[in-house]
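Bench log, entry 3. Co-assembly request; chain sequences pasted below exactly as received.
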Amino acid sequence: MIGSGGIEGELARRARREGLVALSISRSRVYRNVAAVLARRDAAGLRDGMQFTYRNPARSTDPAATLPGARSVVSAAWPYGRSSLGQTPSVIARYARRDSYGELRERLARLGEVLEEAGHIVRVVADSNALVDKEPAVRGGGGWYLKNSLYGVPAHGSMVVIGSIITDAALTPTRPRGRMTGCGSCTACIGACPTGAILPEGAVDARRCISWQLQKPGLLNADIAEAMGVRVYGCDICQEVCPYNRRNAEGEADALAQLEELAGILRTGDAELLGHYSHLYLPGRDPSVLKRNALAALGNLGGGPAAPRALSLLSTWVDSDNPVLAVTAARSLERLAGSSKE
Ligand code: SF4
Ligand code: SF4
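Structure output for the full assembly:
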């Protein structure tokens, strides 16, 4: 909790005005505990080519590597959960339906002006390889680590994006919450993950995580293609079952509406698709990853009213010049034809 006086009080007022939640302040430190966890997970093969904060742990676990002379880290979250309710496309994970990180970054930049106006240096870091942002936020008591590897905050759960302001200002740290994890004995997400990707101690095996696999180029493994459901980017399952996110619960998606969304992605030209989803991480800025995922998702629409059109759409893609798209379409055709017979 931040007091009402001084620069910390002004930060709290500005954060509220910006719609930011779970504001916390911690001292800038080298996070050796996190560096050890990253090394352990990397050695166990859980990373599966993922870059992010694994790319350069010496940098990502030390705020001073981004801002020499750093003394404090201000952490804050922007809750996208309610604003994403009912937004299309539903085949895209909720944080990615809009440029949530872009919105967070702008808000953090305006929050950082409080420090700049007082003559301090700030670096805003959000969705970047530069910082393990959950660690300073947890140290400052903003929220908790969760078993599904995400960060949760009181009242908003894990449907938040989180960012940091690294500064040379010596701010008064906020109090830690007393425990680092917020799950207690709950294991709902572990049981709900369709691929068994959530391991003990809050680790997710990227080799089995649908969210990461949908971002990787190349052919999807058959078991991922089957388990991914009707998704094109991201996977919200381990958030939807989380009791912290109850107030953000979304109803069942309609298969015909999903078919429309998938067909829309497939008929959109590459340049337009890239422009529309410029805020998403796509390897090599190659929008064909989205088309591959849309073709794989068509195979999971089941034998209901969406099946006839999905089958005919897939059959037009089996001759694609792009071998990944052609094979994905053929596999989906087989899967969908199988479930249509059941
Ligand atoms: S994002 Fe999906 S696949 Fe990944 S851990 Fe969560 S439920 Fe499992
Ligand atoms: S579902 Fe339960 S175990 Fe999983 S993150 Fe939420 S509280 Fe933690």
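The longest helix spans residues 323-341. The pocket of iron/sulfur cluster (ligand 1) is lined by residues 148, 193, 195, 197-198, 204, 209-211, 235, 237-238 (CB under 6 Å).
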